[in-house]
Amino acid sequence: MAKWTILVLHALSISAVAAAEPAVNDRGVSFEQFSRGGQLFQKHCAECHGAAAQGAPDWRTRGPDGRYPAPPLNGTGHAWHHPPAALAKTIRDGTLAIGGSMPSWKDELAEDDIQAIIGWLVSRWPAEAYEAWERKFGKTAGGRE
Predict the structure, then answer these.
(1) CATH code of the region 23-137
(2) Which of the 8 DSSP states describes residue 71?
(3) How does pLDDT run across 110-130, given as a tens digit for each residue?
């Protein structure tokens, strides 16, 4: 009897933890991750990618410096063509070494910050883009592999 009581109490505690932080949507992003990711995006990314992650107007055209401007990250560009690990690497390491214009954020953003930003982004993608990304790279919880 005591084992069943412990088992039931354990199951209830797991349910309470899961209910305490529900997913924002079916993409496995918690409210905390979504909120924090949005705040971090606005602080570190919006200057180049736009407040709504819409990217620079002519993101497909090289600028006078020969570099491409910031692409959209809202599901209308090519971000969803990349696996979660590549998105995290791009944020962490930037693209300067490969001819891009994005700086590295590894000294300012912890790994969980990077994952929160990715979670915020994928939560905002149109269903078609997210579903294609999920089919290509497997079920991801807020951008995590």
Answers:
(1) 1.10.760.10
(2) P
(3) 999 999 999 999 999 999 999
